[in-house]
Amino acid sequence: MLTKVIVDAKVIGQKMLSQDVRQIDFLAPEIARQALPGQFVNVQTSTHTAPLLRRPLGVANVDPEKGVLTLIYRIIGEATHILADACTGDRISIIGPLGHGFDLQAKKPLLIGGGLGLAPLVYLAKNFCPNPVEILMGGRTKKELFWMDIFEDLCEAIHITTDDGSLGAEGTVLALLPELLQKGGYDCIYVCGPEPMMKAVVEVAAKFEVPCQISLEKYMACGLGACLSCSCGGVHKRLKVCTDGPVFWAQEVKEW
What we know:
There is one protein chain. Helix content is 18%, strand content 35%. By secondary structure, it is an alpha/beta fold. It has two domains: 5-98, Translation factors (Elongation Factor Tu (Ef-tu), domain 3, Beta Barrel); 109-215, 3-Layer(aba) Sandwich (Rossmann fold). The strands form three sheets. A seven-stranded mixed β-sheet has the order 10-9-8-7-11-12-15, sandwiched between helices. A six-stranded antiparallel barrel has the order 1-2-5-4-3-6. A hairpin with a 3-residue loop joins strand 13 and strand 14 (238-240). The longest helix is centred in the last third of the chain and has 13 residues, at 195-207. The relative contact order is 0.14.
């Protein structure tokens, strides 16, 4: 049984992946030993008055033996600017692991991601190894797809699309998805990224009758299921993304 914990995690490294995307590594053995692909943690970026709320960040990778937790984030607002200034040796309060992760029963999975939605798919791909894993990733330009280097050793095949055609097929992931599903023999799709992209993928997956899991992103105040700020419409009830998710089977969600 997973047990969420609050730890003062030690920063052991931080590096730039692109102009506005960073990878930060923590020594957090209590979380690293338990975290599952698709789960997230809540990070306190400041001990000052603002920003008051913790920030939810998906688990990008863990090394249970070394006790290392890896997060990948985009620098957007005040909280992530503060996180980007963290140095090796700093300690940051983290709560986790939180939420429900991906189902790992697939024998031939297809991972689909765009933007920062590719972050939780790193740990997912790692957990499917050595079974064959394929990934379809989309970005606006070639510069956004630094992710190729991250997935190179984790995936049997990497399929690429860019909006401007600077790398791979021109267009969104939908430019390649129907063709892949026609001949790929996948038994499950796992998708995380911008909401319009995920909705479009779910529609195509349904046409090809391939099960699909989605990882939702919502603004969260508590991350523990108390505030209801991250709720969305389910088929049978209101769903809390933080505790019922963030991963759902596509057919569970009615209103995103």
